[in-house]
Amino acid sequence: MPTPNSQTIQFLRRGEVVTLNNVPPTRTLLEVLREDLSLTGTKEGCGEGDCGACTVVLGEANGDGEGEQLTFKAVNSCIRMAHSVHGLALWTVEDLSTADADSQHPAQEAMAQCHASQCGFCTPGFVMSLFAMYQNHVLQGQPITRELAQTELSGNLCRCTGYRPILDAAQQMASLPEVRLDQPTITRQLAGIQPQAPSANNPYQLPGTLAELLAARAAHPNAQLVAGCTDVGLWVTKLHKQFDAVIDVTRVAELRCIEQRGGDWVIGAAATLQDAFAAVLTSWPELTTFAARFAGLPVRNSGTLGGNVANGSPIGDSMPLLIALKSRLVLASLRGEREMPLEDFYTGYRQNLMAADEVVAFIKVPLPASSSQTTLLRAYKISKRYDDDISAVCLVLNLTLDGDVVSDISIGAGGVAATPVRARQTEAALRGQPWSQASVESAMHTLRAEFEPISDMRASSSYRREVLGNLLQRFWLESQGEQHINLEAFKLKVLA
């Protein structure tokens, strides 16, 4: 008999449906793999989605009928709840060899040929990220450039500093004999796994529609909401929190949609960060570097924009950007929907206006206006590591010029207050003023005085204040055509 606070999970692995009974709601996928299935190739490194040693690949059917395709995503299993993979296909490093036991997948063979493994602890995670890259790019006829490999491997850390041969391996895969999965068979097998039916007795709710989600939220207002679990997962792995009931929003069809509607990008709360940024970049390509630096790809593949917004961390990077873009938030419940500017949603440290029966449903991001006026948008992230790190300060500036005069400006900031904030005083100091060095220097003083940041392990209060002003100055210099004042302009040369 199932024990209280546990239920069954089914997923596809190696062509067979794996059924696991009595799985508690907060058991991680990594724990299930290593402890329940003895799949110890997947390693535990950091337990917080930073190092990539635990990377696995998930496959999900996407589309309807005969045109249904699989999507492949590398994710961190250490902060992924096991129940979230119900109905998906799973690959670990043990699953890549072909029917011939002596034959390696191109991701593995390339690593061996390029001597890309040293101590070997990180190798399984790199191999799985390479496997996802192989499925998503090599088999689609897309070349693996050095830049693409660096971006897609950004969530994997090598403690032996062996990155060059690993990047070589990424580019080597396409030259090896092709290996393809039987995707039609996999999609048919996935279709045979029944979705978890809505039930008040399920400790892990995985609703498929918005109506089911709102009903579950109303019935279980104390249940922990998760929307990708890249932060709540840390509460489990680092703070050892346990939840009797969890509501996972990531299968809600309506909340996974991203579309242009009424002059806005309307982004569902369950859309992954990777998909949400891909949409936003079509309107603001200047955000490409910021999107890549938000987090490593496995985190962006699991985490959602709605989860980042609802979590409301003062150092969450999406909120300063959304605030600067004048985004609005839609909350939903069985009582209906209500909408508000994003900056008005937060009331204190990790506190907000969401009622116990509500969920974050949509984020509305206004599309760029067609205008003869000049607009400038820049997003700056300051962190100890360039890639895959949390911000000490995040500043996003959205400026509109009418000639040489600031006709409008909106500024979002993170890491400088108890919540993500809008720099209204600095906006007022610049609005209507000439866009000049003198105006910027005056506004720098205003920006540094507008907030009272704390000192912590990432930066001191005085450092954060100084950096705020410096970033405004950098924005000014870039608006004047300066090209070589940031790391984005620095490119490593590839030696032959």
Tell me what you see in this structure.
The chain contains 16 helices and 19 strands. The chain is an alpha+beta fold and 496 residues long. It folds into three domains: 7-191, Roll (Ubiquitin-like (UB roll)); 204-366, Uridine Diphospho-n-acetylenolpyruvylglucosamine Reductase, domain 3 (2-Layer Sandwich); 374-489, Enolase-like, domain 1. A hairpin with a 2-residue loop joins strand 17 (393-402) and strand 18. The model has no long low-confidence stretch (mean pLDDT 92).
Task: Give the percentage of residues in beta strands.
Answer: 15-25%
Sheet with the most strands, sense and barrel status: 5 strands, antiparallel
Question: Can you name the CATH architecture of the largest domain?
Answer: Roll
What is the 3D shape? globular
Poorly predicted sequence stretches spanning 5 or more consecutive residues: none
CATH topology value of the largest domain: Ubiquitin-like (UB roll)
Domains (count): 3
* Rg over CA atoms: 23 Å
Distance between the termini: 62 Å
User: CATH-wise, what's the superfamily of the largest domain?
Assistant: Beta-grasp domain
- Note the total helix count: 16
Major β-sheet strand ordering: 9-10-15-11-12
Q: Which structural class is indicated by helix and strand composition?
A: alpha+beta
According to DSSP, the number of beta strands is 19
**Range of helix content:** 25-40%
CATH class descriptor of the largest domain = Alpha Beta
Mean pLDDT: 92
